[in-house]
Amino acid sequence: MDRRDVLLAAGAAALPSAPALRVALPATWGPPFVMADGGPGPAGILPDLMHLLGLEMGVPVEWVRLPAMRAVTAMEAGEVDLQCPMHPDWWGSPVSAGRWSAPILTLRDVLVAAPDGPTHWPVKPVPSHPWRVGTVHGYLYPALKSEFVSGRMIRDDAPDQAAVLAKLARSRVPVGVVNEYALHAFNRERARHEGLRLLRVVSEVETRCLLAPQPRHEPRLILEALDRLRQSGRLKAVLDKYRRS
């Protein structure tokens, strides 16, 4: 059974019968997107953003923790109401345009070098000496697809981004792909000379929220609440907090 956390948004107490907004929380997200803080639920960028959404809608937020490969099944089976952040290229199959929110978060995947890895990029990997690249199991990397297909790069999967960063720190892979926020959070915990080096931006995407085919709450209400948060600057304020920390 999937582990679930319920965060009661302020104002939801006035609506005790309001069903919770069920948000998918794939296990692949790590700091600073999802962190344990010793409280009743998760902390980090994603919980903070969804807590704001719950407040805006006046409903509780229920986190549904899922293995990465279960997210699609859970969404289509109606076990969750939405997943954020998401991008059409990551989902792997087309869905109705009406299930996508407006952009909420710009994410950059970056190529990172191990301490003894390359000092610059591009280098020219060849099929006889391919580069092993730290990647996350179940993640799609459209910008690197041709490199993987040609054999110039070989995926070296880890369960989540934190594990990719740990591999890089121990030089178990020469390079890896992680989110820019995750890299900055990792480096903040280390002395300057122990930080991992960013080689280049691999991709930059405007991510959105994806609604289930039949969410518990009317899709229009969810999408309008997200849009109000975006236009008011409240979503940006959350992101700015993590950029400064």
From TrEMBL:
Protein's name according to its UniProt entry: Transporter substrate-binding domain-containing protein
